[in-house]
Amino acid sequence: MSFQENFLWGxxxxxxxxxxxxxxxxxGPAKTDVTTGGSVKKPRYVTFIDKxxxxxxxxxxxxxxxxxxxxxxxxxYYPNHDGVDFYHHYKEDIALLAEMGFKMFRLSISWxxxxxxxxxxxxxxxxxxxxxxxxxxxxKHGIEPLVTIWHFDTPLYLEEHYGGWNxxxxxxxxxxxxxxxxxxxxxxxxxxxxxxEINNTIMMxxxxxxxxxxxxxxxxxxxxxxQFVASAKAVQIGHEIDPxxxxxxxxxxxxxxxxxxxxxxxxxxxxxxxxxxxxCGDVQCKGKYPTFAKRLWNEHHVQLDITEQDLEDxxxxxxxxxxxxxxxxxxxxxxxTDDMVSGNFAAGARNPYLTYSDWGWAQDPLGxxxxxxxxxxxxxxxxxxxxxxxxxxxxxxxDGSIHDDYRIDYxxxxxxxxxxxxxxxxxxxxxxxxxCIDLVSAGTGEMRKRYGFIYVDKDDQGHGTxxxxxxxxxxxYKKVIESHGEDL
Length: 488
Ligand code: BGP
Known about the structure:
By secondary structure, this protein is an alpha/beta fold.
């Protein structure tokens, strides 16, 4: 049997994409409240621009706070404001996850629910209580929570008044927030992730291609450095508060292949791995910047604000486990191609050996095994796949059923490859599929891009009953968990 009895089978969601209740019980607005929703209706970033295209002074009759970059527009539907209303449905949702036999449920804590502006001294008691109730509910059902401390949702106030992660002060605000989480939920939560897909800052630089020059790289690498230090300090505090805590990094995992055997391609592909995948993993797992970091910085004349104390913090704040998302592979080539595909923060040539999802993401289960085996050899830390799944259109039939055999096929193929990696010696301890309950897409703001075992009746404009329905994959995954991954 590949999967041990204590293997942590489960699923994952994120606060900003699921909770809703964006301004209830004292929660402050988060960056993601106004920036998700690209293809639904409006541009992703709602900025204060006046008629002449210059930074505006007034919007919707309201004066703009000094230094503000984002606006909440009355006539626009923000999908994250309601999410799938997990805030009011969590008991029902966790009961459904328990019915499938979940051992682990990954979710995130909304920073602005605990610290509405992000820079307060004391947390919002109602926010603290909400997550306590959620974790108690998990405990009642014997489900281990896996908590992401930051899932893209920096409080909007910190963005507007401090410049977000460009500012070193964010380290202290984050550490205060993380410390509150470790203290308040000690005994209820053991598994933690400091930053979701921390390498996305780099992925975004890659995506912008030639448009991302020295200035953007300087900014990106500096933001990342502050996040690395914040993460390392959080790891140290988390261990002091409870030595049982298992704290992980979380990397956006993509398997990159060279487009041809041209040595230029082989080298370009290796550099892609270093920049996109190893740069963050090395700092968080080994506690220091890798040798190739110098080359990356020099390419863009990057000069980082790094103190001796930062370096010591990085050394003392190595993570206990490596976790990652995996949806697809991508091709890196130096040759001209007019058949490009993009998905999940990566763009590359089309791979003729693979099939693609409706959103153009390459389906590559073997790529998952490649990633698992390579990363385990590099770090030799326990691994978890904390996001994996197929974003697809689902149809709710009149009798309330949803026949999502395409999703079952995708997950089955990936689980098989995980099993083989385990047989080959990889210490894989958990698997939480993405969006186990349908939720708002982070990339597009759509509801119709669904990942779940549980269907939520809500459309792209926010209409619907928010009722929950079991998909065919719900019954299938229950069987998979029951049989410890044998009955696929
Ligand atoms: C990851 C994010 C998730 C999630 C997922 C799927 O990058 O960590 O928040 O949303 O991708 O992406 P999408 O929602 O764009 O389909």
